[in-house]
Design goal:
Elements: H1 5-10, H2 16-52, H3 56-68, H4 72-84, H5 92-104, H6 108-120, H7 128-140, H8 144-161, H9 167-177, H10 180-188, H11 203-209, H12 213-221, H13 236-242, H14 246-254, H15 269-276, H16 279-287, H17 302-308, H18 312-320, H19 330-333, H20 340-343
Helix pairs in contact: 2-3, 3-4, 4-5, 5-6, 6-7, 7-8, 9-10, 10-12, 11-12, 11-13, 12-14, 13-14, 13-15, 15-16, 15-17, 16-18, 17-18
């Protein structure tokens, strides 16, 4: 039976009005399907761009919805912000959960950092077996630092199997694990409070790096050398400031730490605090008599560091105390911005 011209006209493909509107809808749907992934990736690029200009809060707001969609890279990057306290309140538990989710998806950097969280008890009780498992997982994907850490663990296990630990070895182990009562017991028994490792780190520096406040207190009570430096020129106070450990900073200052000590680049604790944006630590240092005019080897003062990193609260505090900015060199103006990887 033949079809009339009217029947043919009613077919969608032959209806002029449907053709324009319908094909427009179909074309838009095609674009969404075809180009959805690049648009998703662009959000990660936006987060990286925000970090490059140190707008960490914006980076976090971009990353959050991506993590909820299960994006492993976004989970890893947002974990870095939570570990460092940039743009969000510092929270190792949240960082741990984000790293765990990314690690389970095969993200090798997340696997290595998750192993560190388990090993050091950051955001989760220390679990050496889980730490080793994740180091092995990352190493199997070619992660060089994971391979190196596994070699260190194997060396330590071999040494332990050859005989009982000496008192000094036992003390070092207790410091690493944050066992303050055991540290006090071993110190009282005569173990060396000022022993150093192959990097020149004292036990006080080791305890500070790991954020073990009770262990720091135990070592200070045993007259550990408070201003001793490692081979990189850092001492306990500089490290505590860099890591944002206000409680340890306060403890060290009250125990006589050199408040204007300089690291290998000439940075004082106040310059470090200003550059990192650690407001409460900057207040503490200034209130304790830190030199607000001191500058590093590049001539950058605490105020210049605060301004360069847009830490306005610290900049105002320094200005109110009489600090002034010296001329900034072209090299400083071209200084490379921080990245999320550097925060982990």
């Amino acid at each position: 039976m033949g079809r009339s011209d009217r029947d043919v006209a009613r077919r969608p493909g032959n209806n002029p009005r449907f053709g324009r509107a319908g094909f427009r809808l179909i074309f838009c749907a095609f674009l969404m399907l075809a180009f959805g992934t690049p648009a998703y990736a662009a959000n990660l690029d936006d987060a990286e761009a925000a970090v490059r200009v140190r707008d960490y809060a914006k980076a976090a707001s971009i990353l959050r919805p991506l993590t909820e969609r299960g994006d492993a890279e976004a989970q890893y990057q947002l974990a870095g912000l939570y570990r460092s306290g940039r743009g969000v309140t510092k929270d190792h538990k949240v960082a741990f959960e984000l790293l765990r989710k990314a690690a389970l998806q095969g993200h090798v950097k997340a696997q290595f950092n998750l192993a560190n969280m388990y090993e050091n008890g950051w955001g989760v009780p220390a679990q050496p077996a889980e730490a080793r498992r994740w180091f092995e997982t990352a190493a199997s994907q070619g992660h060089e630092m994971a391979k190196s850490r596994l070699a260190e663990l194997q060396k330590a296990a071999t040494s332990a199997s050859k005989g009982a630990q000496s008192p000094d070895q036992a003390l070092h182990r207790a410091v690493v694990k944050g066992q303050a009562d055991e540290v006090r017991r071993l110190l009282a028994a005569g173990a060396a409070a000022n022993q150093t490792d192959e990097f020149g780190r004292t036990l006080l520096i080791e305890a500070t790096l790991r954020g073990h406040e009770p262990v720091v207190r135990a070592l200070l009570d045993s007259r550990a050398k408070i201003n001793a430096r490692d081979r990189y020129g850092d001492n306990a106070l500089l490290i505590a400031v860099r890591e944002g450990l206000r409680g340890i900073v306060d403890m060290l200052l009250k125990s006589g730490a050199d408040i204007n000590a300089q690291d290998a680049n000439g940075n004082t604790p106040l310059v470090v605090a200003a550059g990192k944006g650690h407001d409460r630590i900057a207040y503490l240092l200034i209130g304790s008599g830190a030199d607000i005019h001191a500058s590093n080897k590049k001539g950058r003062s605490a105020l210049a560091a605060a301004n360069a990193n847009r830490h306005t609260t610290i900049a105002k505090l320094l200005t109110d105390r009489g600090a002034r900015v010296a001329a900034v060199s072209a090299g400083d103006r071209r200084a490379a911005p921080a990245t999320i990887d550097a925060l982990l």
